[in-house]
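Re: the 318-residue chain
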Amino acid sequence: MKQKEVKRNFELDIVNLIKKGLNPSKIAIKLNMSLPNLSYYLSSLKKQNIIKKIGYGVWEVTPSGEVKISSHKGSLQVKDVRGHAFIWKIKPNKKFNYLSILNSKNIKYELKGISKTPRIILNNKKTWLGSNYITIFEPKINSYFATNTIESKKEAIYSLLEDITGLKNILGEFRYIFTCRRQHYGFINNPEARHFISKGKKILIKNEKGYWFSIDFSQNKFKEAETIHEKDADIDGLGYKNYMNSHEKTNFKVTPEFILNGFSQMMTINNELKKNIKSHLSLIKEYRKENIRWRKGQLKNIEKNKFQKTLGDFYANN
């Protein structure tokens, strides 16, 4: 493997660990490298504007809209979609005696709700161990930056798979299926979001399937237009991005006024066409009448000529 590729893979690991809230000392232990070596990578990431220092030994990934690092493509890309607020429901293929397992392994838990469901903290995520489903809540600070909603969801799923591995380490091996019960995708520093937020306004849009779109100032640092429907937020996000990109390609000329003017011009052309068609039909009718009259005249002449010829033959023979 080339030296540049090795460096980039270390950068990917460091960014992922910073996202999880680890400090440099813990990152160095996790990656089995010295602190001076880690400092070199932190400095490189800072110069690329991928991370920033917010306190002594405390780093965070920079907000979207700036350059972000891709953890699966091995390249640096501009990422303007932030996936967050995920809730995952995992259905194992077997039942567990959670309390017995947690107590035997000295794992801290709390009993929550009327049903006294045990809840643990796994990878800084609240994880509810229900009798039928295991539910994992992503913290509000967890964000998955990508170029579109589908790629963002993939990033979140990669993180979920790490959580499931953690669950297997506690509970033992099991098979499972999982579903996404909540998902939000924010378009960072979106022009509409900046406009409405500058006026102190929030937008929340609802249709027959429920609330699906909002504009707000998330975490007091992300001016976002968000797709928020629990089932369709990822698809809605793709549609919204394609819609906005299409507007950008036409230099935002396709406005309601542009469409109404287009319809008005079409109606004018349509009315002129109707007049022309009516005039043409009238001419066709007159032509048909003249044609019929001419044909009748021609027929009379033919009959007259026939009669005269017959009469002439009669006199000649007699």
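The longest helix spans residues 256-317.
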